[in-house]
Amino acid sequence: MKETSDMATPPATATTGATPVTNAHLGSLADVSSGAERHLPVVPESPVMEARDLNVFYGGFHAVHDVNLPYGRNEITAMIGPSGCGKSTVLRCLNRMNDLVTSARVEGQVLYHDQDIYAKGVDPIAVRTHIGMVFQKPNPFPKSIYDNIAYGPRVTGMKVDTMDDLVEEALRGAALWDEVKDKLKQSAYGLSGGQQQRLCIARTIATKPDVILMDEPCSALDPIATARVEDLMMTLRDDYTIIVVTHNMQQAARVSDRTAFFTARPDETTGNRTGLLVEFDLTTKIFSNPSDKRTEDYISGRFG
Ligand SMILES: Nc1ncnc2c1ncn2[C@@H]1O[C@H](COP(=O)(O)OP(=O)(O)OP(=O)(O)O)[C@@H](O)[C@H]1O
Ligand SMILES: [Mg+2]
Q1: Selection from 15-19, 25-29, 225-229 with the highest mean pLDDT
Q2: In this structure, which residue's CA is closest to atom 24 in ligand 1?
Q3: Which segment of 101-110, 190-199, 267-276 scores lowest on mean pLDDT?
Q4: Would you report the helix, strand and coil content of the chain in percent, each value rounded to 5?
Q5: Is the predicted pLDDT of residue 243 greater than 50, yes or no?
């Protein structure tokens, strides 16, 4: 096992080629899709992250069963499925946030640049600096806009030339700079919900992660703020790998390159519902011609 400090090493740039994917392949949801106009291989080449035989338990409850999923570099992967199927649980495994849930137990592997982040000796804090997270509800710190951004670089001891430049870069990166540049010292709580969520994205990118995990990042936002965050996600994709959980089918179709559909299967004896991955494919394929009937039923609104 390599030292955690090696975790920053990026792999060779993933090549793209093969299957041309255009909006023409999509059905009605495709009309709103702009994330799909890329030429991507059918499976991600040299994925940045990969879940291998991932099983998650909360105490005796088997929440997630045998998930195998690669996450392509500079791609947006959406994880969709009905409530309780384990999307957030899987997402939290990807940067060891489930370590903070005392009853949670994770089996299998989560590879990040081919290193298992659950291997002995790996520091979960280091993992989270490479794999950042944006939550459902905007959760700025009770601090100024400036200090929200500067906090992460300060506590992680990041080497910074000038903090002012870093704060500006992060806010520009999150498409928020123009709206806040004259009130950096004001409380982040004075921002609108959509601005707060972009601030949280700026806070996440300030520590220069490689991967950004997002758990329903727009569910607390109105359609205009949602559109801004979606635009931002598609811009950020050039520099980051994004993995997003969403209940919004249009959003998955609009922004993501690939989609993983999960469902939950009840245990015959206990009735407990264990989550599993049903299908993973190019978003264009999932929304136009899914391979599994359960996916089709879900995306067409017949179930879930
Ligand atoms: N901290 C926890 N302790 C015990 N059980 C949990 C915990 N977190 C989640 N679960 C259970 O694990 C299963 C998967 O939950 P999870 O939150 O991952 O689902 P989800 O697909 O994200 O659902 P939603 O769409 O409603 O957010 C559910 O049955 C849930 O009750
Ligand atoms: Mg969830």
Answers
A1: 225-229
A2: 83
A3: 267-276
A4: 35, 25, 40
A5: yes
Q: Domain coordinates of the chain in residue numbers?
A: 4-122+211-299
Q: Torsion angle, CA of 218/197/192/186, rounded to 10 degrees?
A: 180
> So what's the pLDDT on residue 206?
95
Instruction: Kindly list the protein residues whose Cβ atom lies closer than 6 A to any atom of ligand 1.
Output: 58, 63, 83-89, 101, 103, 273, 275
What architecture (CATH level 2) is domain 4-122+211-299? 3-Layer(aba) Sandwich (3.40)
Ligand 1 atom showing the smallest separation from residue 273 Cα:
29
Count of CB atoms situated within 10 Å of the CB of 135 = 17
Q: Summarize the confidence of residues 124-145 as an average pLDDT.
A: 94
CA–centroid distance, 186 to ligand 2, in Å, is 32
Q: By alpha-carbon position, which residue is closest to atom 22 of ligand 1? A: 88
Confidence (pLDDT) at 221: 86
Q: How far is the CA of 82 from the centre of ligand 2 (A)?
A: 9
Residue type at position 303: F
Ligand nearest to the CA of 276: 1
CA angle 274, 280, 283 (to 5 degrees): 130
Confidence of residue 19 (pLDDT cuts 50, 70, 90): very low
Rounded to an integer, the average pLDDT of 126-154 is: 95
Q: Are 174 and 199 in contact (CB under 8 A)?
A: yes
